[in-house]
Structure formats: structure tokens, C-alpha cells
Automatic annotation (TrEMBL):
Family named by the database record: Belongs to the methyltransferase superfamily. ETFBKMT family.
Keyword Lipoprotein applies: no
Protein name (Swiss-Prot/TrEMBL): ETFB lysine methyltransferase
CDD domains: AdoMet_MTases (cd02440)
């Protein structure tokens, strides 16, 4: 579990507003998160040949059961409470955007909203103690009562089927498309990354994913070793290989992300020897952050995670880049950029930024020698 003050120090927008999906009837804001883990073995390399998607990622494992939990919480705390749920064990939370917009208008007009409730649709892994997670999340944001909730069993396949219509092909750039597994590429001759994100983040719809893909496309000239720190669906790792990288490594603290990335690698016929996936120790793991990755082995490193890990792991992330290699950092908002820049400037030079909306991707080249701040 993450420490309680982890949430308190993070403004709402910092965490996990990962992904906006539109429902036919009502839009949803869809958040996803890593599942906190206590300890991990470090490597979960692909275990299939490129020609067989099912052998690497069996239908059985993909249809893992989950708990679907509807939680009624006071509207005025929906953002911090959603963030807190993610920190205390939810795999994803979805909030009705129409109701949230109403809420924001109420807040702007100063009307009393404390009594109104909003329903958060969340998903928890089956092993999570849902009541305890909800209670910890409520405590962490100062809610006096534990919100009412209802739990149902589901399986991942249900969830995916339910949400299939929502994820449509995404054009990232001319001749670069992200295409759901269940649709045909609109431009067959383009670079098409075939995806089924499952529970993992990374459908290409989020601005940070787009920014990272564009950065990656500009950096990969052929033959590079690429590190995707916070791989989610594996979208960047897979894209790097399609752009011509020689090898790619994806790291994530979420086992569901590793599963999803593995499945997606097979969908894209990625040869086994070209992609490694590593389950990283989480923040609280006593095993520390050592993985079987060598320092200074990558020509390009991108970490699209969130503000807190980006700040905390700065030297760790940069340590994997070769001197002179470009490191991209995303998952951050414009208002957070000054702090992130300051944190990385001892390690990176020639820093530049790209933005879409409020979201930023910062990149720079690794210094030969680090400077004191
Ligand atoms: C915003 S998603 C990015 C996914 C994908 N790379 C993309 O660009 O769309 C962030 C991912 O980072 C993972 N993550 C969060 N904290 C992490 C950490 N400390 N170490 C490794 N991965 C982490 C999350 O589980 C999640 O899958």
C-alpha cells in the first residue's frame, strides 16, 4: 500500500487522469492505476513466439476475474476520492463526466454541493479487501463516513467487451495509427500499432501517450535500444520496434500492464528476442528498485508515469540512459513543469518540451557528468 500522505501531497490532476473514453450515452472520465504490490520477481519476459498471440497471453489469463464496485461518494470530493481509491488498490475508476461538469459549475457558482452524491464505477483485483481500501481512501481525504458501495464479480473479458465500442482507431500522426485489436486498420499501409489495452493505460488517446509517441518517432532512426519506463499497454515499447529500434524493454509496477503489454506484443508480431518486459518493484517494496537492467545501456529512454514517481525516480530513470542519450519524461501537467525541470536539470541538458492541452512531455540529453543543483 502507498503511504497515506502520498495522496495528500498530490493535487487532483497529478494522478492518473489517464484516459477519456466516451460512452454512447454518457461520457466517462476513465482513470487507471497500477496496483500496489508488496514484492515482485523482477522479470516477466515474453514467453511466446511472434507468430502465436495466444500462446504468450492465454485467453484464460486475459479473462482474469475482477471486482466491479459502484461507490457513492459526496460530489465535492469525487476527484481526491478517486485518486485515493487508485492509491489504495483500485485498478481503475470511472466517473460520469456530465455529472462532474455540473459539479464544477455548482462549485463555480458557490452553491452548496456537499450533500450531493456521485457514483464512481471502479474495478478492483479480486484479492483486494475492497472495504478496507474504500475505508482507507475515505480516511485519507478526511471523509467521516465510509461511502456506500456495491460489489459485483466480473471478468476482464466482460469489461473489454463492454468497452470495445469506446476505443476507436486513433491517428497519432500521418501514417501512424493505434488500432484496436477488434477493428481493421483504416490505413493499412500506415504504421499500425494493434492494441488491446485490457486494464492497462495506453490506447493512444491520452495527450501524454501521443506526445511520447511523437518524440519516439523523431528519435528512432534505426538500431536503438529503447527503455519504456511505465509501459502500461506496451504501446511505446511496441511502437519503438515498429519505428526501427533494435530492442525494447518495458517496465511497469502493475502485473496487469505486463500482461497487457505481452498480449499486445504478440498482436503486433514482435519477435520474442526484441522485447523484454519487467515487473518493477513498487515504491514500498523492500527489495528496492534493482532490476536486471544494466545502467547506461539505452539510446532512448521514455518515462510516461506520474508526477510523484517521475520526481522520485529521476536519477534511477536517467541512470539507464547512455551519456548523450535522449530521455523523455511525461505524465506531467504544465504547472508541474518547473519542478520537474529543476529535478532533471542536473542529469539532462538541452531540455525541450512539447505540450498538448495541459499535458507536457519534457526531453533532454543525458549529461556526461551530473552537476550539483
Ligand atoms: C500513464 S501510464 C503510461 C503508459 C504508456 N507508457 C503510455 O505512454 O501510454 C503509466 C504507467 O506507469 C506505471 N507506473 C506507475 N508508477 C510506476 C513506477 N514507479 N515504476 C514503473 N512503472 C510505474 C503504471 O502502472 C502505468 O502503467
Amino acid at each position: 500500500m502507498l503511504a497515506r500522505n502520498f495522496i495528500k501531497h498530490i493535487p487532483c490532476k497529478n494522478l492518473s487522469r489517464h484516459h477519456i473514453l466516451r460512452d454512447r450515452v454518457r461520457p466517462l472520465i476513465f482513470f487507471t492505476s497500477s496496483t500496489p504490490q508488496s514484492s515482485f520477481s523482477i522479470s516477466a519476459s515474453l514467453s511466446t513466439s511472434s507468430s502465436s498471440s495466444s500462446s504468450c497471453f492465454t485467453d484464460e489469463s486475459f479473462a482474469a476475474p475482477y471486482l466491479s464496485v459502484r461507490i457513492h461518494c459526496p460530489k465535492h470530493v469525487v476527484d481526491p476520492f478517486s485518486e485515493a481509491l487508485l492509491c489504495f488498490g483500485a485498478s481503475s475508476v470511472a466517473v460520469d463526466e456530465d455529472i462532474k461538469e455540473e459539479d464544477d459549475k455548482d462549485a463555480a457558482s458557490g452553491s452548496s454541493i456537499a450533500s450531493k452524491e456521485i457514483c464512481i464505477e471502479s474495478i478492483f483485483p479480486v484479492h483486494e479487501e475492497v472495504k478496507m481500501c474504500i475505508s482507507q481512501a475515505a480516511n485519507s481525504i478526511g471523509l467521516k463516513e465510509i461511502p456506500k458501495f456495491k460489489v459485483e464479480m466480473g471478468d476482464e473479458q466482460d469489461w473489454i467487451t463492454k468497452n470495445q465500442d469506446l476505443f476507436q482507431p486513433v491517428e497519432i500522426a500521418e501514417r501512424l495509427w493505434i488500432v484496436p485489436e477488434w477493428t481493421s486498420p483504416p490505413v493499412p499501409e500506415a504504421v499500425n500499432i494493434i492494441l488491446n489495452p485490457g486494464f492497462a493505460f495506453g490506447t493512444g488517446e491520452h495527450p501524454t501517450t501521443k506526445l511520447c509517441l511523437l518524440l519516439l518517432q523523431s528519435l528512432i532512426k534505426g538500431g536503438e535500444a529503447f527503455l519504456d519506463y511505465g509501459t502500461g499497454s506496451g504501446i511505446l515499447a511496441i511502437a519503438s520496434l515498429k519505428f526501427g529500434a533494435a530492442s525494447s524493454v518495458g517496465v511497469d509496477i502493475d502485473p496487469l500492464a505486463i500482461k497487457s503489454a505481452s498480449h499486445n506484443a504478440a498482436l503486433n508480431n514482435i519477435p520474442l528476442e526484441k522485447l523484454e518486459l519487467h515487473l518493477a518493484p513498487s515504491e514500498n517494496s523492500s527489495s528496492g528498485r534493482e532490476m536486471s537492467l544494466q545502467k547506461e545501456q539505452f539510446d532512448v529512454v521514455i518515462a510516461n508515469i506520474l508526477l510523484n514517481p517521475v520526481m522520485e525516480l529521476a536519477d534511477h530513470i536517467v541512470s539507464f540512459a547512455k551519456p548523450g542519450a535522449t530521455t523523455g519524461i511525461s505524465g506531467i501537467l504544465s504547472e508541474q513543469l518547473p519542478n520537474v525541470k529543476e529535478r532533471y536539470s542536473p542529469f539532462l541538458e538541452n531540455i525541450s518540451t512539447a505540450t498538448i492541452g495541459d499535458w507536457v512531455c519534457m526531453s533532454g540529453t543525458k549529461r556526461g557528468e551530473f552537476i550539483d543543483n
